[in-house]
Amino acid sequence: MSNHPNPGPLTAERLFATGMRDQWHAICPSGFVERGGMRRITRLGEDWLLYRQSDGTVRMLADRCPHRGAPLSQGQHLGDRIACAYHGVQVDGTGTVVAVPGLPGCSLEGRQLVRSLPVREVAGAILAWFGLDPEAGPGPLELPEPLADEGTAAFLCYAEWESPWRWAMENLLDPMHGAFLHRESHSMFGGDTTARFRIRETDRGFFFEKTDQRGVNFDWVEFCRTGIDWVDLQIPYPASGGPGGPFGIVGIGTPIDAERTAVFFWRYRKVTGWERDVWQFLYRTTLEERHWHVLEQDRVMLEAMAPDADQAENLYQHDLGVLRLRRLYKAQAEEQAERAGKFAANYPR
């Protein structure tokens, strides 16, 4: 069980290692927190308590009782609040102390002393807003189209990897690895093993794509920033893969801490009616196992890389997408670190 101490100021180095703020992040599958249940979880290098109220609403609190700092996750679920096991202090979903059984009328009562994050549930996952200013409300969120389109069927695959979050995102911004690491998969065996790439700007991010091949392998990826960072890619499927045309993936990598990543992959196809039923059946009975095999290849490779692997690189033209992503995050980390000092007094301890 993790027990992260107060990590201190939000420096640029810490942000680059544990993730950007002022945006939404995917936290975990919705099924991790059942009605009336709670779960301790680490995200962006800090410990949190997720619990689902009796009415089904999910709440997310910093996992520290405001009285003595004991973990609220060791406490008792009381429907719409949590009672700390240490001294019984009760905290509701907004982080407000609603009762101090040992001293009714105590000055702690009625004060919002625990940080509470705004949460949403989308396509089988819990999302949360991590803001620099604890007093400000959440920013806008535009969902990835495949997850919001009723005419698209999607399955969420979730895993936790022992590697930095940036490496998981960089892996997705590296289409060329599909022709080598995944060359024996059922969907990425075709196409050339040589290519040229380009970056194509969009109003929400950029495409990193092959200039001389399309619709054959893992030939392009789009990096999107719509209140949450995500990537979209499509891989052509043979007829044996069922109806629906290309097979798509929406991918998100959320930092657990500086060394671990929660990865979310929604596999999707645009299908309706009976074709949706055929695709869903085929996916569960045949394709899902094959897709997990591909993910395992990525996991094994990234987890085997040395902690300082990015300090000994010799990059070339295929790595333009990786370089673009790093520069974007480094610049954002520096900008956020500068603003974070303004809210230091309010940042959770």
Could you name the key traits of this structure?
about 350 residues; alpha+beta; Rieske Iron-sulfur Protein; Naphthalene 1,2-dioxygenase Alpha Subunit, Chain A, domain 1; 2 domains; 7-stranded antiparallel beta sheet; 4-stranded antiparallel beta sheet; about 20% helix; globular
3D structure, described in words:
It comes from Nocardia aurantia. InterPro entries: Cholesterol_7-desaturase (IPR050584), Rieske_2Fe-2S (IPR017941), Rieske_2Fe-2S_sf (IPR036922), VanA_C_cat (IPR044043). It holds the Pfam family Rieske. Strand 5 (76-77) and strand 6 form a beta hairpin. The protein is built from five helices and 17 strands. A seven-stranded antiparallel beta sheet has the order 11-17-16-15-14-13-12. A four-stranded antiparallel beta sheet has the order 5-6-7-8, with no helix packed on it. The chain starts with 11 loop residues before the first helix and ends in a 9-residue tail after the last helix. The chain has 349 residues and is α+β, with helices and mostly antiparallel strands. It has two domains: 23-130, Rieske [2Fe-2S] iron-sulphur domain (Rieske Iron-sulfur Protein), CATH 2.102.10; 145-330, Naphthalene 1,2-dioxygenase Alpha Subunit, Chain A, domain 1 (Alpha-Beta Complex). The longest helix has 32 residues, at 273-304. The model has no long low-confidence stretch (mean pLDDT 91). Helix 1 packs across helix 5 (320-340).
Task: State the total count of DSSP E strands.
Answer: 17
Order of helices and strands: HEEEEEEEEEEHEHEEEEEEHH
Q: How would you describe the oligomerization state of the chains in this entry?
A: single chain
Q: Rg to the nearest angstrom?
A: 22 Å
If you average the pLDDT, what whole number results?
Answer: 91
